Each structure stands twice: as C-alpha cells, then as structure tokens.
Amino acid sequence: MFGTVNNYLSSVLHAAQDLDGESLGTYLSLRDVHVQNHNLYIAQPEKLVDRFLKPPLDEVVSAHLKVLYHLAQEPPGYMEAYTQQAAACGAVVRLLQQLKDENWCLPLMYRVCLDLRYLAQACEKHCQGFTPGHVLEKAADCIMACFRVCAADGRASEEDTKRLGMMNLVNQLFKIYFRINKLHLCKPLIRAIDNCVFKDSFPLPEQITYKYFVGRRAMFDSNYQAAVQYLSYAFSNCPDRFASNKRLILIYLVPVKMLLGYLPSKSLLQRYDLLLFLDLAMAMKVGNVKRFDEIVRDQELVLIRSGIYLLVEKLKFLVYRNLFKKVFVIRKSHQLDLGDFLSALHFVGLNDVSLDETHCIVANLIFDGKIKGYISHAHNKLVVSKQNPFPSVSL
Amino acid sequence: MAQVRGSCESFCPDGEAKMRIREKLLHYFELNNGQKNKPGVLVKEFTRSAADVKMPLPKEMRTEAALTKTVEYLLKEQPYNVAYDFIFDRLRAVRREIVIQMYHASQKICLLEPIVMFLAYSRYRLCEEPIDKFDPKICNQHLQECLTGVLCCYEELEDMESSREPTIRELERRCFIESLYQLFNLGSPESFTRALTLPDYVRRDATRDATFKLCFGICLAFQQGNLYRVLMGVPQLPHILSAVAAAKLQAIRRSLLQIFTHAYNNKQLTVPVPYLLRLLLFDGPIGLQDQCRHYNISLTADRNAVQFNKTDFNHNAEVFTPQHERFVESKLKRIYIPEVLLLKKFN
C-alpha cells in the first residue's frame, strides 16, 4: 500500500485536512497493511515528514515510521519501538490539546494507545532488565495522559467533546491494571465514568468491555450482587458471534452466580466448553465436599490462571450446607445430632474432620444465615427452626 | 546514573565517628560498657536524604562485607528488647545504603532478609510495650516495606536467565520469608494471589519445605472462612512464624466469638469454658474472661460456662491488642534468637 513514502505522507496529510480520524488512525496503526511496505522503514524520517506535516502531527508520524523501522530489525527492537510509540502517544496528547472543541481525532488516539499497549506487552514478553509489569505501567501512564485531556474537555458540546473517548481509554487501562494486578488503580477511572453525564451513550462494544471489567472488580471486592449485574449485562449484550468473549465473561459470571445460589445449566456450559463448572456444580448440589476439593485440586492451575480460585474456594461453605441439609432430610427431625453431620462428612470421604470442626462449620453456617437454628453444646445437637431451617441461598 | 560503591570497612565511617564523639552524640549502646564519654563500638546512624545534603562520598558508605557484618553485629551482640530503637535506626541506615549503592538483587536479599526477621520478631516481642516505647504501626510499615523489597528481589533473580539455580539454603530462606509474608498479610486477597502464583519449587516442593505448605493451608482456611483450621494450624508453625501469626489471633478470636454468639444463641444453654479455651487457644480462663467482658458476653455464676446471646455482643468494642501467647513463648525459648534472625537455622 502507498508505494512510496511521499504517497504515504500525502495520504496522511489529506486525512488530516479532511478531519478524517478513522483513516488517520488506520494510517498510523500497526495492524494495517501499510506496515509491510519496506519503503516506510526509515530510521530518521523527521526531515521528510516535516515537508508534509505540521507539528505535532509530524511527530506522531515520524515516531510511527521509526516504530516500523525498529520492528523490522532482526531481532525486532521491541524496546526501541515501544519508546517511539510512547513518543507518538505524547505527541497525540499535544494534538488533542491543540484541537479545541473538536473530537474527530479520537480514532487516531485509540489506535496509538492500543498499539502502545500491544508493544508494551511485547516488551514484557521478549525483553529483560526491568521488573515485570514495569513497561506496562509506563504505558498506562502515557494512556492516562490522554485520558486526562479527554476527561477535562467539559466545555465542548456533546457531539464534539473528547469525553466521548474516555471509555475506550478506561478499557485499555483496565486491561493493563488487571494484567499487572493493580486493581486499586481502577477505582478513580470507574468514578470518572460514573460521573460522566452521558455514560450510557458510549458505543455498545465499549460498554460491554467496561461492564466486564467493572464486574470482575466487583467480584474481587466481594461485591457479588453488583458483579452479577455487570457481568450479566456484558454477557447478554455481547453478540453470539464473539463466542470466546462470551466464554470469558462466563468464567466469572458462573461462579459468582453459584455463590449466590444459582447453578448453571448443562447446555450453557457445554456450548461454551466450561464443563469444569458442571462438575463443581454437581459436587455442590449433592454436598460432596471431598469431590469438590478434588476437582479444585485437579483444576487448580486453570482456576488460578483465570483468577477465580479464591472465589471457588468460597463456594465450599455452600457445599457443607447442602450436605447438612441432606442429613436434615434423612433424619426428618428438628433436633439433629452433630455426630450425624460428622458421619456425613466422613461418609463423603473427609476423614480429617473432628467434632470440634463440625461445630465450627455449623456455627459459621448459622452466622451466615444459611441455617436457621442454634446449637446446644451440652446435648451436642443442632436445633433447627420449624420454618424454613435451610433458607434458599438465592434470594 | 553511575553506580556508587562504599569503601568504608567498619561499622561507622571515620568522619561520622569523629564528629559524634566530639559532639557527644553517642547512643548508650555505643559507649564502652555504658561508661559516660568512653566510646565503644559505633554504628552509622540513619539520616534522611534531603535536598541540602550532599550525596555521600564512597568513604562515607560501607562495603557490602561491612554492611553484612554490621547487620550481624546488631542482631547478635545486642540485648534487643531494650535496644530496639537503636537497632531499628542502625538497620535503617543499612537499608539506605543498599538503596544508594544500588546493589543487585542477590546482595539485597542477603542484607534485607535478617532485617525482615528482626522487625517481625520485634513486632511480637514488644507488642505489649506502651506506645512511647514501641510503635507497632511504624514497625508494621517498615516490615511490609522490607518484605516487598525482598520479594521483588526474588522475582528479579528468577527473571534473569543468567542467574544460577538457587542453592538449597537460599530456597529454605526464601520459603521462610514467603511464609512470613503470607502470615503477615493473612486475609489479604492480593498476597494470597501471590502464594498461588509462586513458582513450583517454592509452592510444591513440600518434601523440602513443609512450612510453606502449612502457611498456605492456614491462609486458604482463612479465605474460606474456616477459622477453626486457622487456629489449629498456628501453633504448629515454627518460632518466628507463629509469633507473626500471633499478631492476628485477637482478631480471629473476636470473629469466632461473634460467630458463636449466633450459633449458641439460647438463654437456657451454655457452652463450657474448657471447650472455648481449647478452640480459641487461650492460655487460661483469665484471658477468655477478659474478652467476654470486653465484648459483652456473659459468663455463668460459677465461671465454668459461657452464655452466648447474639443481641448482647458489643460490635463497637475494638479488637484486643496483640499479646504474648504461651505457645509462642515456649517456642521462642527453645531457640537461640540471633541464629534464627540471621537465618542460619530454621528449626
């Protein structure tokens, strides 16, 4: 594409003159076909670029050509490319500041920030000599600079305000913060979006991504009701053709819903290849604590990698509850011997449990409101309420 | 920035020693047998970096060997329950030099590990001291800082392809410090996530290190909400680790007592004291009685049983401050502290 550098530069110039942000974004993307054009790999393109373009756009383009140059080296100079992309990002910030009351260049900003993140990830993967996450954190700082310009653009009209770019950037930042495990940094971003007057008029794909991350964060904060709300929104609005994205959402949505007492259907799990949860749900349903532990142990790596290990471990008390409910159903009495619960635990194969621990587990379930009743220590009995002794977990 | 290297081979650079002797700025523990104006062994003081202070010269900073010896001297020669402030300050000076001289990860680890141990031990040893003698908040803060510092170094070493395999000794030390970090941050999802993602040779090699496995079990039980398992695990921990965990005991006792007020909530029924003493790891009935009074839980007239009532529980009562626990004391009595603080011995 473009053939010569001059062709390329004049196309960039035309796009800028036409206020065509989309095309401009494509011309500065690292995923466009023009990156395969060897004529564009220039180590020092400044003089050439200056003939066509005015600052600060010339800096963006120069930096972009240098990125192409460094990436074409053998082996690719990821670190140098990243540094140049960061410079491009800095120039975009200046461009944004210059263009008052205009937002046509937002697609350009999206593109440059996205590529910056990709390059930072490549550096983390291929380069050494820094603490892990350092480059990504630096990239987040650059994106944050763009975000500040966008968020501060309060005076322009609703069509022209750069604030429309906020959610795209927030999603980029989320992706970085989740990757480097700095979830606390998400909070001010969420507040900024919440306070935004047109928070519901951002494009749907951005909203889905946003809700997905906010949902995951709510999950880590143990705010499960909110997590279900956000993740359900993301899941039901995500089009079916993005099956892998829907699967990603389900990885979090399913266990959170299980924690709130909703078991997933087999067909849903089959469709998205998540049968691991079916095993967990089955063990949970019948109260087989031992089986539950085994599944968690066998699937440990998968659960850890998806970041739901802790959440799944929190399901364990529901498994106890279901087991103890079975004891209640069998005994058909409102006075249940704690020895029976212990026998039930031994029956499912949990042999290292003592009577003291059984007391503590039952006590915990009562405290959480999962069992209604009280324990009589002297008689070693659990006295359950005549009405609804095992209230439904889902409310 | 060019790397600076210290050249001073003693505990205290000559310049500072002369100045402090002249100005009579010696700490009690730097005097010869405590005699007034008779200088003994001086150790470099902590000073803040400030804009008007020049970057220290090489001769004003110690070499790595001198720093190591300083740490050993401080942790070995001093009766530290009385000299806490002194050691704390002098170790802080060591930490500052580590930063200025930009040591690489493996050097930092060797110097920081004993400092972590010292702070962790002090945190427990001095937990019953009044606030003007010992500030637990500052100690916690420094301990967390040093811990994360060491942990970062471990990661840095791992990422360096050139670095050799860690020796068994180094692994043992790392497992111990990683365990300490887990217990110090018991209940924090972030630190638990770290435990989950540690390399296999720390996490899985249970034959070499049962300690980490035990700590992991305790943290997992805490995350699940199974406080019984937490309480049963703590006394099995080795010396310093059980001391670190002891700092969390009071909060765990409170939670469990609160749970019991719901579970055993009945006006006619009581729960025997021996059962509670056993579960809550109390040394004797006095401790339990104090807590019951504090959280407004009633005891029977003969003080042999507790009557739980969920509405009476005082939610506003603050958690008891950490205290010395008998099982920790007996563990600490059996070890030679300097040896453990310098990570020469683990059991």
TrEMBL record, chain A:
<comment type="similarity">
    <text>Belongs to the CSN12 family.</text>
</comment>
<dbReference type="GO" id="GO:0006368">
    <property type="term" value="P:transcription elongation by RNA polymerase II"/>
</dbReference>
<dbReference type="GO" id="GO:0019904">
    <property type="term" value="F:protein domain specific binding"/>
</dbReference>
<feature type="domain" description="PCI">
    <location>
        <begin position="208"/>
        <end position="389"/>
    </location>
</feature>
<dbReference type="GO" id="GO:0016973">
    <property type="term" value="P:poly(A)+ mRNA export from nucleus"/>
</dbReference>
<dbReference type="GO" id="GO:0003723">
    <property type="term" value="F:RNA binding"/>
</dbReference>
<dbReference type="InterPro" id="IPR021184">
    <property type="entry name" value="TNF_CS"/>
</dbReference>
<dbReference type="InterPro" id="IPR036388">
    <property type="entry name" value="WH-like_DNA-bd_sf"/>
</dbReference>
<dbReference type="GO" id="GO:0000973">
    <property type="term" value="P:post-transcriptional tethering of RNA polymerase II gene DNA at nuclear periphery"/>
</dbReference>
<dbReference type="GO" id="GO:0070390">
    <property type="term" value="C:transcription export complex 2"/>
</dbReference>
<dbReference type="InterPro" id="IPR045114">
    <property type="entry name" value="Csn12-like"/>
</dbReference>
<dbReference type="InterPro" id="IPR000717">
    <property type="entry name" value="PCI_dom"/>
</dbReference>
<protein>
    <recommendedName>
        <fullName>PCI domain-containing protein 2 homolog</fullName>
    </recommendedName>
</protein>
<dbReference type="Pfam" id="PF01399">
    <property type="entry name" value="PCI"/>
</dbReference>
<dbReference type="GO" id="GO:0005737">
    <property type="term" value="C:cytoplasm"/>
</dbReference>
<dbReference type="GO" id="GO:0003690">
    <property type="term" value="F:double-stranded DNA binding"/>
</dbReference>
Automatic annotation (TrEMBL), chain B:
<dbReference type="InterPro" id="IPR045107">
    <property type="entry name" value="SAC3/GANP/THP3"/>
</dbReference>
<dbReference type="GO" id="GO:0005819">
    <property type="term" value="C:spindle"/>
</dbReference>
<dbReference type="GO" id="GO:0051298">
    <property type="term" value="P:centrosome duplication"/>
</dbReference>
<protein>
    <submittedName>
        <fullName>GD12920</fullName>
    </submittedName>
</protein>
<dbReference type="GO" id="GO:0051225">
    <property type="term" value="P:spindle assembly"/>
</dbReference>
<dbReference type="GO" id="GO:0005813">
    <property type="term" value="C:centrosome"/>
</dbReference>
<feature type="domain" description="SAC3/GANP/THP3 conserved">
    <location>
        <begin position="11"/>
        <end position="300"/>
    </location>
</feature>
<dbReference type="InterPro" id="IPR005062">
    <property type="entry name" value="SAC3/GANP/THP3_conserved"/>
</dbReference>
<dbReference type="GO" id="GO:0005634">
    <property type="term" value="C:nucleus"/>
</dbReference>
<dbReference type="Pfam" id="PF03399">
    <property type="entry name" value="SAC3_GANP"/>
</dbReference>
